[in-house]
Amino acid sequence: MIEGHLHPDFWLVAQALEKQVRQRGGGAAVCVYWRGRPVVDLWTGVRDPEGHGWERDTPAMSFSTTKGVTATALHVLVDRGLCDYDDPVARHWPEFAQAGKESITIRHLLCHEAGLHHIRRLIDHGERILDWSYMVRALERAQPDFEPGSLTAYHGLTFGWLVGEVIQRVARRPFAEVIRTELAKPLGLDGLHIGAPPEACERAAVLRRPPARSRNPERFRALAKVVQRVNRALGIPFDPAFVADALLPRSGIDVFWNPRILEVPVPAANGLFTARSLARLYAALASGGTLDGVQLLSRETLRRATEIQNRTFDKVIPVRMNWRLGYHRVFTSSGDVSTGFGHFGFGGSGAWADPQRNLAVAMINNVTGGGPLGDYRMIRLGGAAVRCADRAAGGYAGRR
Fold first, then answer.
1. For 349-360, what is each residue's pLDDT tens digit?
2. pLDDT at residue 398, as a whole number
3. Spatial CB neighbours of 11, under 8 Å, sequence gap ≥ 6
4. Triad 130, 133, 138: Cα angle to 5°
């Protein structure tokens, strides 16, 4: 049974959510803001293996959807003049200027052009990602895999500590506190955490584990080598080794299904969110940076943050992601939303804003699946929201 509220013009979103949970099991929540107001706020299904129902305030860990929230926090600091996108990272984090990284800028980090995507080289076990200091020291010593700015390779895990440490150095406060004070508190968000407090962890949905075979990084790496040889023989430029290098530690991948994962910030992967909070955050971005009288970002900073930085094929995700500064293009079943930006996550979650429609969409769930940027669930929910918004607006189409 679906609970919550729904504007009748957006019934297609409820229909898509109900179908997805019926087919996949588990639970999920979706929230849509249109023209600055919530028009969909729904939840359904179960939040744990015992079958307890999803509730209004149930949050779920949302994997790479976290990156969009992390980037937004940095944009707030840029908006205040505390740093700039073209600053060398080492200006704020002097220890970073090792092993040929002196010229890497904050912009390089945000649009995945720093050449520091290789997580397998940095850690010997997945549990290392729970140790912020260890990861920061490892990245300080790391050497870029390619000339910064020359290629785009999705920094699936390393993005978090790279951008997160810049945030800490600039704000001079712990990362989780910055998220709380600069994003959650001003907008009155009821569930937006990266490094969650105990009370939020207790409410969290329990993620369903994918099959053991899909959690074996060495098996994936072996398969990647086979595909690599075939692609080279056929002249296909995609190298699947980049995927393993960026996303799969050598062992201990099960750390993502350990309750401890929620306790410390992993700013690329362990955000604990409600769909309502994500949608409200992106609604502020869809509305020019201001929502309900609260200015999160100026229009000029928002323009800079969402300007497309590259249109090349990403080396880790073999499509054109059209990276902005911490956000990617919006994929929906209604087409590419040309003015949209946001971030999807492996577990199927996602959140995005479309300023041209003044539309924001967010979904969380506890049945993981798909690739690095989720699966078709968010794409279809977003497509339903786009169709509903266009019909409600009298047929406006802002996609290509």
1. 999 999 999 999
2. 41
3. 388
4. 95
Distances (CA, A) of 272 to 147, 259, 397: 34, 12, 33
Residue 137 has pLDDT above 70, yes or no: yes
Cα dist. 275→6, 38, 60, 113, 141 in Å?
Answer: 14, 11, 9, 30, 37
| Residue in 62, 64, 334, 349 annotated catalytic | 64
Whether 29 contacts 364, CB under 8 Å = yes
Dihedral pair phi/psi, residue 144, rounded to 5°: -60, 145
pLDDT tens profile 165-216 = 999 999 999 999 999 999 999 999 989 999 999 999 999 999 998 765 555 5
Do 118 and 245 contact (CB within 8 A), yes or no?
A: yes
pTM here is 0.93
What are the residues whose beta carbons fall under 8 Å from the beta carbon of 249, sequence distance 6 or more? 119, 120, 123, 125, 126, 128, 129, 157, 217
Q: How many CB atoms are located within 10 Å of the residue 376 CB?
A: 14
CB atoms within 10 A of CB 18: 16
Is residue 64 part of the annotated active site? The answer reads: yes
